[in-house]
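Troubleshooting log. The previous run stalled partway through. Resubmitting the same two chains, unchanged.
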Amino acid sequence: MRMAIAPFPEWSAEVLATTESSLEALLPGTGAAGDLLAPLHEAMRYAVLAGGKRVRPLLVHAAGEITGASRQALDQAGCAVELIHAYSLVHDDMPCMDNDVLRRGKPTVHVAYGEALAMLVGDALQALAFRAVAATLEGGVAPVNVVTMTRELADAAGSIGMAGGQAIDLAAVGHSLSRESLEDMHRRKTGAMLTVSVRLGANCGKSPNPAEQALLDDYCAAVGLAFQVVDDVLDVEADTTTLGKTAGKDAQANKPTYVSLLGLAGARDLAESLRLRAHRALAPFGPQAARLGELADLIVLRRS
Amino acid sequence: MRMAIAPFPEWSAEVLATTESSLEALLPGTGAAGDLLAPLHEAMRYAVLAGGKRVRPLLVHAAGEITGASRQALDQAGCAVELIHAYSLVHDDMPCMDNDVLRRGKPTVHVAYGEALAMLVGDALQALAFRAVAATLEGGVAPVNVVTMTRELADAAGSIGMAGGQAIDLAAVGHSLSRESLEDMHRRKTGAMLTVSVRLGANCGKSPNPAEQALLDDYCAAVGLAFQVVDDVLDVEADTTTLGKTAGKDAQANKPTYVSLLGLAGARDLAESLRLRAHRALAPFGPQAARLGELADLIVLRRS
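Second attempt completed without errors. Output:
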């Protein structure tokens, strides 16, 4: 019960610290001098450690509060979703994709280590994510739940999820996408991994019943969309220093955004209504869902 | 027992047919006109279907003969290793890596679909591989074995396995690698996925005991190394038409090979001694291991 009443900043700081040390332990060390794998492992650590808001691991841990999951299992599940996120950023930044040189205020992986190694970094981080899912077994998760989590993460990361959303994004550059198609793209590109974060966290404990799962899915749909709407707003409002990546990039690339579709005020209103919808979905869970509610606020009210 | 006495060409033709139809079913369809995911899914199918020797699925099925695994489970495990292999070829062929334009006699994926989509194809195929591992559950594999298989595939594909081997390969271009380092590279780059094919196939049935596992690992070590030695020999001997990819590429790139290290005759002798070592490791299993023995022969005696 201690966790349920700690102020959010304390709780999130603790989750971030434990996530950081779990990622640190999962990522291979850079070894002794002459270790032929050292360049790859150094670049993987560069891509993952000491950066990022860790929104996905926070969602994993918050969902685990509802189902009484163990901290150890949640740590591994949190690493899994963060590693998928990290790999997607490495590949997305490459010259053949967004060609970004700055990420979290540092040179992107391909700038720092070359394109070939950057591709391998992404590939290896994806594999490590599934290694982390398997490691939830040692955190007391039932084997059949671990298999479910593997399947769900594969779908969320793959061609009907995140990778599919990126492919739609590619095809959409320079085209005017309908609002329906834009939402479909973001549901895959960003929403799928946010949703699976909640699912993995919940599955680390006592599996939710169908009614509970439907409420959690509705929460995820609202938060996933809000996340993207706020990203689009920040892309217009923020400067590059605050954002830690190149600002105004999407507008420059003539990519459709919620701001171009609804205007700045319209996009802000949409984000707020989605935040309220997320809270409504959580209401039946009572205080156990407080962390998920606080994360909805964090996602909508963030400044970067 | 029927399977145990069918001639090898019949057995392998049946495995190849069932692998092809399982891959076909696992890969998402290209859907209706206007499906925004159609380009990605079409490119994924192009990368995987109708091509390749399917050595890894054959190893999966052959190993499953020893442990009495179900055909359904072996099909999914075979798809898993083949999908990892297919993704690695797509990424390896890209301009920032080997910059190959021809694969299995067809334009490589990035030539046919562009670099950005090729990267996403590889990423999505890796996710789908783990989806296939999870699907062995429906083939009757114990959940805890599915988790073991997930962990083993992640290690074999990741930074201490295949991706790590490729990173060493990158760093080795233009350098003279010691024979020890060359073997370490190939053990990761090619050997890890061949080894995990045998492990996954065996784990689909009654798990091998430690003594049996040690014998299978020795078989894999011999076959994995032989595979690479023969690749190097063929790269020198064969012309581009027979090979279905650009011949002489490694020598041109000044990459160290077994031929440059041992000469053509020396490399051929090494391959043959590895083939015999593979057969010795299988001897204690008796006739149940006949298929693995035949695959060792296939790998060493192939002409492309």
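Takeaways: Strands of chain B lie at 102-103, 106-107. Residues 183 and 225 of chain B are 7 Å apart (CA to CA).
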